[in-house]
Design goal:
322 residues; alpha/beta; TIM Barrel; 13 helices; 46% helix
Length: 322
């Protein structure tokens, strides 16, 4: 266990590991809606078996906004044990609106061995740019030198901060290492951040809709959901091997699915959980209310997806029953 400013596996090594695919893990529940810690441990293992070097939890894809403090603590402990047992790195997300509470959460994660903090800027009730940058700086200072990734998610958590604010923070806070851009048009911001002084590197979220353009612009990787991580892994591997045309073609096959599902955040959460259940990765695809129930049309689109990418996603626990 590391104290504040430490890291479970050495935060200073994050830069070496922080490239490629970093899945945002789902939060499994049982059929009654209670968290399934054992199931979460199984899910972490399945995702790590795909070969990724780092994972993140909890995010929007984890239904983080539907979890209690005690549930977060239990799942975080499970994740850190599983990830460090396999010598992989775990990024812990902090999304508290109040600065004091965000600091407390980040310090607790650091003390338990997080390898980095992913920090969602406060956005409720339209805080000012000054208030947001003060919040981010306070959390960064509290956990320094543990690396911090700032999540920029204009569609999900609108923030007044701009590239200049992030660059200024990076100059002041040496542990501010990276920006996660949750946007379907991440490319321009990625190149802009790289062109500033100091340069800030980026990963792209938003189900990887902008993955190819982001990689062209210099992104270090992607933070998608976790249920079909192998598809993202294959795209990344092709790109990293210099086979950009093949990576682009595979991404083009994926794009109609993720673009449709990302029209509604609760929809893609339900879809990813359903896929994970069909693969035998989790026992239930229960999502806490309020959420999005899948329709017969949704299920048909999922089955089509699973058929198209079957060569990457086998085995499915109920493939014969589809």
């Amino acid at each position: 266990m590391a104290g504040p400013g430490g890291a479970g596996m050495g935060g200073s090594s994050l830069a070496a590991a922080a490239r490629g695919v970093c899945p945002v893990l789902a939060t499994p529940f049982d059929e009654t809606g209670a968290i399934d810690v054992d199931g979460f441990g199984q899910l972490v293992g399945r995702v790590l078996d795909s070969g990724v070097n780092w994972v993140m939890w909890p995010g929007f894809a984890s239904e983080s906004y539907k979890l209690s403090d005690s549930e977060v603590a239990a799942m975080r402990a499970c994740l850190l044990e599983q990830a460090h047992g396999r010598r992989r790195q775990a990024v812990i997300s902090v999304a508290r609106h109040a600065t004091r509470l965000a600091v407390d959460d980040a310090v607790a994660a650091a003390e338990e061995g997080a390898d980095a903090i992913s920090l969602l800027p406060p956005y409720l009730l339209s805080p000012s740019r000054y208030a947001v940058t003060e919040h981010l700086g306070a959390v960064m200072s509290a956990v320094a030198p543990l690396p911090v990734i700032v999540q920029y998610a204009p569609a999900l958590a609108p923030s007044p901060i701009r590239t200049a604010d992030l660059t200024r923070l990076a100059a002041e806070q040496q542990n501010f290492r990276m920006v996660k851009i949750d946007s379907a048009s991440a490319g321009p911001m990625i190149s802009e951040l790289l062109g500033e002084e100091p340069a800030l590197e980026s990963v792209v979220g938003y189900a990887g809709i902008a993955m190819i353009d982001a990689l062209r612009q210099g992104a270090r990787g992607i933070q998608p959901g976790c249920s079909f991580v192998e598809v993202y892994q294959r795209i990344w591997q092709l790109w990293d091997a210099g086979r950009a045309d093949e990576a682009t073609r595979l991404h083009g096959r994926l794009l109609p699915y993720v673009t449709s599902w990302m029209a509604d955040m609760e929809l893609i959460i339900s879809v990813e959980k359903n896929i994970s259940k069909q693969r035998g990765w989790i026992g239930s695809d229960y999502c806490r209310a309020p959420g999005r129930r899948l329709t017969p049309t949704d299920h048909a689109f999922i089955f089509r997806f699973l058929d198209e990418f079957a060569c990457l996603l086998r085995p499915l626990s109920n493939a014969a029953g589809r």
